[in-house]
Design a protein that fits this description.
It is a single chain. By secondary structure, the protein is α/β, with parallel strands linked by helices. The chain folds into 2 domains: 74 residues, no CATH class; 84 residues, no CATH class. Strand 6 and strand 7 form a beta hairpin. The longest helix has 19 residues. The chain starts with 9 loop residues before the first strand and ends with a strand. The model has no long low-confidence stretch (mean pLDDT 83).
């Protein structure tokens, strides 16, 4: 890493490097191991055995899906500030998205808030779609216009991470007099 000034950080999930790092390093901890210096960030993954070095690789015997997901989010949180982004206001994008879905009922505007190759999986009903065409059809034919006209969402709790927004919403009919 000393030979390339373009390297601004390192994320390691296999064998830990030796010596003092010259750039910030994100390392897997082993069940509560402390940070080992100013440039080292250590996170623990209790569900991962101490000998499991490749728990983020799906094809590897050491793979642990839940730990790999947390490691991905932690890696993004570690890298984005060091690399200068990209940074998005996910909360604002999500609020706009749900407004288009439930208040404005616009399939086109809802789809415009999504990535180029979106997917949605509504877990309780196993509905949704993969890809722009299928998801547009799902939103138009089975979701946006299937909600009652007086549907209202009330936010109960929100958790915002670097790569996700998790809402607990209460769906109820608007109270009109």
């Amino acid at each position: 890493m000393d030979t390339s000034p373009k390297i601004v950080a390192s994320v390691v999930y296999g064998c830990c490097p030796t010596g003092e790092p010259t750039v910030p390093v994100h390392l897997p901890g082993r069940h509560g191991g402390p940070n080992r210096g100013e440039l080292q960030t250590v996170n623990t993954y209790p569900a991962v055995p101490a000998t499991a070095g490749f728990f983020t690789i799906p094809a590897h015997a050491d793979y642990r899906a839940s730990a790999a997901t947390v490691a991905h989010t932690r890696s993004l949180s570690f890298l984005k500030p060091l690399m200068g982004g990209p940074c998005f206001d996910l909360e604002a994008i999500w609020d706009e998205h749900t407004r288009y879905e439930f208040a404005d009922r616009s399939v086109e505007e809802t789809m415009a808030t999504m990535v180029d190759e979106p997917y949605v999986n509504h877990v309780p009903t196993l509905t949704g779609g993969i890809g722009r065409a299928k998801l547009t059809s799902f939103c138009r034919d089975h979701f946006i216009f299937s909600n009652p006209d007086d549907t209202a969402l009330e936010l109960v709790s929100r958790t915002v991470g670097i790569d996700r927004v998790v809402d607990w919403l209460y769906d109820h009919a608007r109270q009109t007099k």
